[in-house]
């Protein structure tokens, strides 16, 4: 990156996503200012090279070109309001929240240079200690402008996401929330219930044996249900309608499979598994 395109970038919330962003943005040549709740987190972020400097006061971000809010979903709107009191007009403010409809319009009313964003990359662990470089490469970065969003601010965020190696997608907040319900929020609920159902085995010997035998299949299907509980709860709370819609469709599909099993309708089950054998590839195809 050329020196003249290097920016001063603020990150509020130095957890997993804030930490990963800081590592990559610094490696790209940007200067990164961090804000965390606790001084201890600030010190760790500086020691780990996640930020150039950090502190607990938002005023530290006054001179930034871009501020990225990486705190839990419930804190994003209050954070936009708090930033509005300290930032210079025109500073691009964006967030990384996993839901968008509940945030973007209100945040844009509060700060005209706000652009909603969602880098679709993560890990099951939370916190700064789990941060690592390069997790956004070849992953989608969704940008969700609304009617009032400043096109120049969108362009700047698009450039940053491209520098991170992400593939940029644009859609409305509502389209984002419907799509992520299917591929992110529903899987968390399904996977959590899978683990919970397996844990409910009443025969202790069978339960212990299943825990000893669990291998790659269970590891894959249980991964998102065993992730950050706070994040999973906020996805359900802040994208409730779309999570309910997808979960009810899933419930109906499961009810059909139960009926088919009870009726020994092997052809119907074979057709389902043939359909999903081919259908899965459309969701998990390798990215160029
Ligand atoms: P995380 O690892 O738990 O980090 C959240 C950070 O925010 C923590 O460092 C926490 O500080 C800090 N924080 C909480 N409330 C704060 C406040 N009021 N002021 C300042 N800092 C505050 O969570 P995460 O996984 O990075 O998630 C952060 C955001 O990324 C969420 O909005 C989530 O929807 C989004 N996201 C997550 C993923 C994922 O897979 N994890 C993927 C894409 C987007 P303490 O250390 O003091 O608790």
Question: Would you give an account of this structure?
Answer:
- It is built from eleven helices and nine strands.
- The chain has about 290 residues and is α/β, with parallel strands linked by helices.
- It has helices spanning about 15-25, 40-45, 75-85, 105-110, 150-165, 175-200, 205-215, 215-220, 230-240, 240-260, 265-285; strands spanning about 10, 30-35, 55, 65-70, 90-95, 115, 115-120, 140-145, 165-170.
- The strands form two sheets. It has a six-stranded parallel β-sheet, sandwiched between helices. Strands 7-8-9 form a three-stranded mixed β-sheet, covered by helices on one side.
- The relative contact order is 0.10.
- Helix 6 (about 175-200) packs across helix 10 (about 240-260).
- The protein has two domains: about 5-170, 3-Layer(aba) Sandwich (Rossmann fold); about 175-285, 6-phosphogluconate dehydrogenase C-terminal fold.
- Helix content is about 50%, strand content about 10%.
- Bound molecules: NADP nicotinamide-adenine-dinucleotide phosphate.
- NADP nicotinamide-adenine-dinucleotide phosphate binds next to helix 1.
- Pfam families: PDH_C, PDH_N.
Give me some keywords for this one.
alpha/beta, six-stranded parallel beta sheet, three-stranded mixed beta sheet, 11 helices, NAD(P)-bd_dom_sf, oxidoreductase, membrane, prephenate dehydrogenase (NAD+) activity, Arogenate dehydrogenase (NADP+)
């Amino acid at each position: 990156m050329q020196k003249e395109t290097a920016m001063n970038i603020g990150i509020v919330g130095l957890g997993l996503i804030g930490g990963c962003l800081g590592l990559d943005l610094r490696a790209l040549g940007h200067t990164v200012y961090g804000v965390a709740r606790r001084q201890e987190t600030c010190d760790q972020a500086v020691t780990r090279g996640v930020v150039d400097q950090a502190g607990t006061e938002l005023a530290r971000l006054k001179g930034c070109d871009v501020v990225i809010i990486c705190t839990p979903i419930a804190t994003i709107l209050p954070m936009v309001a708090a930033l509005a009191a300290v930032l210079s007009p025109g500073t691009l403010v964006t967030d990384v929240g996993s839901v968008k409809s509940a945030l973007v319009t209100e945040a844009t009313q509060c700060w005209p240079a706000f652009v909603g964003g969602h880098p679709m990359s993560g890990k099951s662990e939370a916190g700064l200690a789990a941060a690592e470089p390069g997790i956004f490469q070849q992953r989608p970065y969704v940008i969700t402008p609304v009617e009032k969003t400043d096109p120049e601010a969108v362009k700047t965020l698009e450039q940053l996401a491209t520098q991170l190696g992400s593939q940029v997608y644009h859609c409305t907040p509502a389209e984002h929330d419907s799509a992520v319900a299917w591929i992110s929020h529903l899987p968390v609920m399904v996977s959590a219930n899978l683990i919970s159902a397996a844990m409910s085995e009443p025969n202790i010997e069978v339960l212990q044996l299943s825990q000893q035998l669990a291998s790659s299949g269970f590891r894959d299907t249980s991964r998102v249900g065993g992730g950050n509980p706070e994040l999973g709860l906020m996805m359900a709370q802040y994208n409730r309608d779309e999570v309910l819609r997808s979960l009810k469709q899933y419930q109906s599909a499961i009810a059909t499979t139960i009926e088919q099993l009870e009726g020994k309708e092997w052809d119907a089950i074979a057709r389902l598994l043939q359909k999903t054998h081919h259908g899965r590839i459309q969701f998990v195809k390798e990215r160029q």
